[in-house]
Amino acid sequence: MRAPKPSLMISIPSQTSFLGLVRDVTKKMAESAGFTDGTAERLALAVDEATTNVIEHAYHGSGDREIELRIEDRGPEFRVEVVDSGATVDPRTVPRVDLDRYVTERRTGGLGVHLMEKIMDSVTFRRSARRNVCCLVKRKDPAP
Amino acid sequence: MAELTVETRDVEGVTLLYPKGFINAHTVRVFEGEIQKALAQGRFKIVVNCGGLAYIASAGLGAIMGAIEEIRGNGGDLRLANLNETVRNIFEILGFNHLYRIYASEVEAITSFRRAEEAGS
To answer: What domains are there in chain A, each with its CATH number?
Structure first.
């Protein structure tokens, strides 16, 4: 009998003090899905950034809301959904990374989303049942 | 265990920061606080030894960017040393390797400040 693929769902308050927990569970699940320590750490960073975005943009820093994390090993891919019921944030309105303006204007906008997109194979945003769902997917390398 | 601790020490006029753990939107205050402490003491030659750093999120990169103008404006610099694969990867993804000097070891980073002084004298 094949062992079931692990999946995990947690709800956390919209507070940055819970980002450490987000990092720990994501890393643990990524390692259990077979990713190396380095890749698991980067996946944890991507989910940290996605959760931070929710706290800062969807909930505007309000700490009394809820963020749901669904982490799933789907066999060929590792999927994390970060779900909130805050304001709809159109990712297209997030300023794109502009390297030239980093230093001169101290612009940090868009860095988090850029990191997420570079670490993951896909990052998508959708609105579902009045909630925002940020879906992060990392494919596993095919077995040699 | 604390999610981030930052030890500091001064060597040959260079302030060394040793962040241990991960820097994100929550822990960035600790990191930023140590940078600001150095600046308040007029110490503008800073090396961040990233050996104990699991990762640095955009909030941490923002903290560096927020301080770099003052540091360089006072004739100093913030340089990075001893990056692991993950942290190096983050810096490369964001092109920070073009904006900041990165050294394989702490000693090389400290020496780079001395070389600049010798060249300028």
So the answer is: 7-139 (3.30.565.10)
